[in-house]
Amino acid sequence: MKDIFKDILGIEGVHGVIALDENGRLLLSRFSGDYREEESRIGSVHWNSFIPEFSDIVEAEFVFERRRLYVRKIQHGFFMVVLDDIAPVSMVRLNCEVLQSSLDRLKPGGRFGQLFKKRRS
Amino acid sequence: MTPKVLLVDDDTAWLEAMQKELAEYADRFNVLAAQDGQQALDVLAAEDVSVVVSDLRMPGIDGFELLNRILHQYPDISVLIITAYDRPKTRDVVFKSGADDYMTKPVSASDLTGKITRALKKKSEGGSLHNVSLETFLQLVEMEQQTCTLRVMNKSAGKSGALFFRNGELLNARYGSSQGRKAVYEIFSWAGVSVSIENQCPVSEKQLEGELQAILLDAMRTKDESSEAFNPEEEEAESRSPEQSRDEILLDTPVQNRRDSSSNPEAETPPPASEKAQPAAAPKARLQQAGPAETGQAEPESGAALVRQKINSSLGNEDDVEDIYEDPQWHYLIEQISHMGKIFNTGSLHAIYLNKGRGKQSVIVPGKRAAVVLMNADTPRDRIVDAVM
User: What is the ipTM of this complex?
Assistant: First the structure.
């Protein structure tokens, strides 16, 4: 698990995080141990059918009966957090605010490793 | 009246230790404690608290949500955030959220006392007046176009409340968890009060209709009409000796004619209706404040009417809401998001919150006819989301 998401995934009730590009293509996903099954189902969501509709948002929340999805616009797409209804959503928002500049470096076609600066020899 | 300070933290060991240490300063303030946000709100509803010191990370209502609710329900109460979760942006986000101060754990009792004392001093930085005629003093505030928060204490009854003035205009009042007319009438009914003055006003929008003079007269009339409901405490206060009841104004320090930079009403002007967050143009069934008979929308089960009803029953008013209307254009997205929810075993979709920046925020409520709630820029989102669910 990459350290960059450690704080978010460590919040009680947070299942995992997903990054999508502007067209709804999956860039990365990280789920904590108990929610790996959910992670395996991500591929079956047609993100491109609705995510582009949110191109003008700063952030959004989809509030369901038992869970929430917190969505944040990043430079090249969207960052999503899947959390239980009881999870402290304000803390999730704060962590996303803290991570914003790192998340903005996520690029379509790139790898997750591009989040981190390359070491120069 | 010794001011009360409420400590909120789910770390009971820290809470108990700090309570014990702060007990040494009982001559300056009394300490109350709560172990989570909900308990803190219960204490605030029952006690007259001046300062809240809260942790950020707590189960249920966390520090941010508690801060939101205090800013909305108790705008005159100072909130100090204390946390072990110190990250580069945490301080910025905490201050941006409206907190008065920020500290990182570990914090010593003497440091915390220093911060609390500073917050308490600020509440009377403009001076204090004792045994004053409120009517006379308020007219002075209006005449001098003061921007201030007045804390009014009715010591004989052990009650206190706050009045919020901006440029001499009475914007709102708070008494307990009541605001608006109810609060102002209660405060105006007190005789021989003490007043402390803070040279700033946390309220920016006028929530009381009418001029001060009209509100004062109305309050007096209401008081006269309800005088059959005899209140022995008031009677005692009013029947004091002529010397006592004379408008004896004792001013500790002079009232300053201060106008802070935030007092510019133009800076607080809400965006024009044309800028409200909306999806692409579509026929919308608007339901304004008028009742069904006036609008021609008789169906009580309609999406917007139902949402309005929920907000009213949960919040008691629609002060935070700019508009509620139905918009069929959201149905496709609601379907797609609901479908996505099935993948994550989320249960049914209850609400979609959207923040489009520049104060444009809205909540879409699914239903046969999807309803859209447009919110004020400073409306705490969770209050509306909770209300419509």
Answer: 0.87
Tokens of A89: 């959503």
How many domains does chain A fold into?
1
* Token pair listed for B356: 């489009």
Chain B residues within an 8 Å CB radius of A81: none
Instruction: Compute the distance between CA of residue B95 and CA of residue B116 in angstroms, rounded to an integer.
Output: 16
| A92 in any annotated domain | yes
pLDDT band (50, 70, 90) for residue A2: low
Q: What is the pTM of this model?
A: 0.59
Read off the amino acid at residue B290. Answer: A
Query: What is residue A108's predicted lDDT score, i.e. its pLDDT?
Result: 67
The domain that contains A17 carries what CATH number? 3.30.450.30
Q: Which of B31, B116, B125 is nearest to B79 (CA)?
A: B116
Each residue's pLDDT tens digit, A11-23: 888 999 999 888 8
Please indicate, yes or no, if residue A59 is contained in any of the structural domains: yes
Total count of residues recorded for chain B: 389
Residue at B248: amino acid letter: E
Taking the Cβ of residue A17 and every Cβ of chain B, the question of whether any pair is shorter than 8 Å is answered with: no
pLDDT at B11: 92
pLDDT at A109: 61
Q: Which residues of chain B have pLDDT under 70?
A: 225-302, 316-319
Is residue B258 within 8 A of residue B199, CB to CB? The reply is yes
Find where tokens 């209307």 sit: B325
pLDDT (0 to 100) of residue B302: 67
Measured between CA atoms, the residue of chain B closest to residue A49 is: B336
Exposed e or buried b per residue across B280-301, where buried means at least 16 C-beta atoms within 10 angstroms of its C-beta: eeeebbebeeeeeeeeebeeee
**Backbone phi and psi for residue B116, each to the nearest 5 degrees, phi listed first:** -65, -45
Q: State the residue range of the domain holding A49.
A: 2-109
Tokens 């007046």 -> residue = B129
Handedness of CA A13, A16, A21, A26 (dihedral sign): negative
CA angle B327, B331, B333 (to 5 degrees): 115
Q: Is A113 on the interface with B (CB under 8 A)?
A: no
